[in-house]
Amino acid sequence: MTPRFQDRVAEEENNYIGRFLKLSAAVEKRLLQAIVTLLALLAIFQALLAIDGVRERISPVDRLEGRPTAFAPQPDHVLY
Fold first, then answer.
1. What distances in angstroms separate CA 43 from CA 6, 33, 37, 59, one per listed residue?
2. What is the pLDDT of residues 8-53, one digit of tens each?
């Protein structure tokens, strides 16, 4: 291989590595932003669930808390 060809290959390789690092930095930044946003939303919704009035509106299961369901066996009925 000629020195000019080797220089050209090395230059193209460095160019590729530079573009890859630039792309990976951008992707890493977006992923980090998404993770921080999701963690913030998780903290907000967990805090909202601590408020009784809000929890009743957000969580459909909370409305059913303490109510007997139609498919539940009678207390004196044994399932086995």
1. 55, 15, 10, 16
2. 888 888 899 999 999 999 999 999 999 999 999 999 999 998 998 8
Pair 56, 63: CB distance under 8 Å: yes
Q: Which two tokens stand for residue 37?
A: 């946003």
Q: Tell me the C-alpha distance between 50 and 61, whole Å.
A: 15
**Contact between residue 54 and residue 48 where contact means Cβ atoms under 8 Å apart:** yes
Give pTM, 2 decimals: 0.60
Residues whose CB falls within 8 Å of the CB of residue 55, separated by 6 or more in sequence, listed in order: 48, 49, 62
